[in-house]
Design goal:
The chain is mostly helical. The chain has helices at about 35-40, 45-65, 85-95, 105-115, 115-120, 135-145, 150-160, 200-215, 230-250, 270-275, 280-290, 295-320, 350-360, 365-380, 385-395, 400-410, 430-435, 455-465, 480-485, 490-510, and strands at about 5, 30, 70, 100, 125, 165, 170. Bound molecules: ligand DLZ. This is Deoxyribodipyrimidine photolyase.
Length: about 500
């Protein structure tokens, strides 16, 4: 009895549950490049190239392990251009009598998969994605017991459960988190180390040509293309991070430097989220670096928190609150996404730099995402739907399960505080402290009013003024709202006038 084992583009792990009991002699593994997945948002060209090349390399590895792989390239004759269509064709052409698949990472696709059995007329087994360290049901059990779903408490429970960075019942170093040590501004002239870069083999070269031919109208720059495209390369990049970069990661986690998109960040999110690396492996490797004395605790703990804490937590939030979550817009933000997010001109150096990095690399690090592009979208009241779609499209690591809570919940506060205890709103002062952007900017970060004032400053106060009733019950916002209410009336009017001027210029593409 032949079974069809479907492996999706972000399920490139040999331990994936869909392959758990696949029989190389009898079964068929199906992988398919389809327009439905490549265009449900306008993915960055590099993201498509990375995924197609990694999929093709993974298929080769499976063949090397003796599997019969039916790999459908985008241009293959007869490609129906949808996953269901490819499953249907494969069933008809291989005589397989059932389908096995690991649950999709996105709600829209999992919902679709749930209808496959009825449509296809054969059993479709949908298995848990056990690459994550907590199941969806496990997260729900954790959440059911709580009034507030704060990441910090989830993370502590995960540390205890997996015994990561623990000394008996206590956290290593006597503290759960070392954030206070992890907020150093960049040093003058600071630059990140040179990263590994990979030669294109025949598979990658062919994929780059395909993407050039079919997706050149998509956002971003395709070349130079330097992503790892298989597990071995991804592991080598991670090993470079652990040995050369991790020691500085903690201190400068929140620092931003113009022209330095990576600084001391690991850049492994795209590999983790596509399955080339497994979370438990990278957590254990980082922990070992601490115990070997190769990296300090503040760096290792900060790194592990991102993976054992944030990554698992946002996935739990996503599945617990979808599909309602995607429609939330607590602050009623509806302004159309301005052209500058797609590379349009702006004199704001921080935004221009974060967007430029994004378009060039399909990457920018978390503090640029949260405190520059995200913070600006929050303050300017940009449409939640459009901002979420932008983040989903432009980053090579973005799938809705991770993008939506991070953008809608964390950056835009559109879930009304379900994830964050207060909005991540900041004026230009924060950006000035944590970056070297403001020195070379047209706008003056010291000013809130007048034509040269940094737009972040007036927009920040406008954001507080407009939403003050909504923040009334939030004790963490009380002082800020009080600060606005206490401000001299003339000054308030001048700030609001400058904010309106900024918004008009934003819409006109002249900010
Ligand atoms: C992101 C993506 C792209 C661009 N293309 C494909 C594809 O052609 N075939 C495929 O199986 N998966 C692709 N993916 C990843 C899927 O969109 C991803 O599996 C779902 O969004 C669920 O996370």
């Amino acid at each position: 009895m032949t079974l069809l084992h479907l492996v999706l583009g972000d399920q490139l792990s040999h331990s994936i549950s869909a392959l758990r009991d696949a029989q190389p002699q009898e079964d068929v593994v199906l992988m398919a490049e389809v327009m439905a997945e490549a265009t449900y948002v306008g993915h960055h060209q590099k993201k498509i190239a990375f995924l197609f090349s990694a999929m093709r390399h993974f298929a080769e590895e499976l063949r090397g392990r003796g599997f019969a792989v039916r790999y459908v390239t985008l241009d293959a004759p007869g490609n129906s251009q949808s996953l269901r269509g490819e499953v249907e064709r494969a069933l008809a052409e291989t005589g397989a009598t059932g389908v096995v698949v690991t649950e999709a990472g996105e709600y829209r696709l999992l919902e679709e998969m749930r209808g496959w059995q009825a449509h296809l007329g054969v059993p479709v087994e949908i298995r848990d994605d056990d690459r994550f360290l907590i199941t969806r049901a496990g997260f729900d059990r954790w959440a059911d017991r709580r009034r507030e779903l704060r990441m910090e408490y989830f993370y502590r429970d995960m540390r205890r459960h997996f015994g990561v960075l623990m000394r008996g019942a206590d956290p290593e170093g006597g503290q759960w988190n070392f954030d206070k040590e992890n907020r150093k501004p960049p040093l003058k002239g600071m630059a990140g180390p040179r990263r590994l870069s990979w030669r294109h083999d025949a598979i990658t070269s062919e994929v780059l040509e395909l993407v050039e031919a079919r997706f050149s109208h998509h956002v971003g720059k395709l070349r130079p293309f330097h992503f790892a495209v298989n597990a071995e390369q991804a592991e080598a990049e991670f090993e470079q991070f652990v040995t050369e970069i991790l020691p500085s990661f903690g201190d400068y986690q929140d620092a931003m430097v113009a022209g330095e998109p990576y600084l001391f960040h690991s850049m492994i999110a795209a590999y983790l989220n596509a399955g080339l690396l497994l979370p438990i492996d990278v957590i254990r490797r980082a922990e070992r670096a601490y115990h070997d004395g190769a990296a300090p605790l503040n760096a290792v703990e900060g790194f592990i928190r991102q993976i054992l804490g944030w990554r698992e937590y946002v996935r739990g939030i996503y599945w617990r609150f979808m599909p309602d979550y995607a429609g939330r817009n607590a602050l009623e933000a509806h302004r159309p996404l301005p052209a500058l997010y797609w590379g349009g001109e702006t004199k704001m150096r921080c935004l221009a730099s974060a967007v430029q990095d994004t378009l060039e690399h399909a990457y920018s690090h978390h503090i640029q995402r949260l405190m520059v592009t995200g913070n600006f979208a929050l303050l300017a009241g940009l449409s939640v739907d459009e901002v979420c779609e932008w983040y989903l499209a432009v980053y090579a690591d973005a799938y809705e399960w991770v993008e939506l809570p991070n953008t809608l919940g964390m950056a835009l506060y559109a879930d009304g505080g379900l994830m964050a205890s207060k909005p991540y709103a900041a004026s230009g002062k924060y950006i000035d402290r944590m970056s070297n952007f403001c020195g070379g900017c047209t706008y003056s970060v010291k000013d809130s009013t007048g034509e040269n004032a940094c737009p972040f400053n007036s927009l920040y106060w406008r954001f507080i003024a407009v939403n003050r009733e909504k923040f009334r019950g939030n004790h963490r916002m009380a002082n800020i709202v009080a600060g606005w209410l206490r401000m001299d009336e003339m000054k308030k009017q001048a700030i609001l006038a400058r904010a309106e001027d900024c918004l008009e210029r934003l819409d006109a593409g002249t900010l």
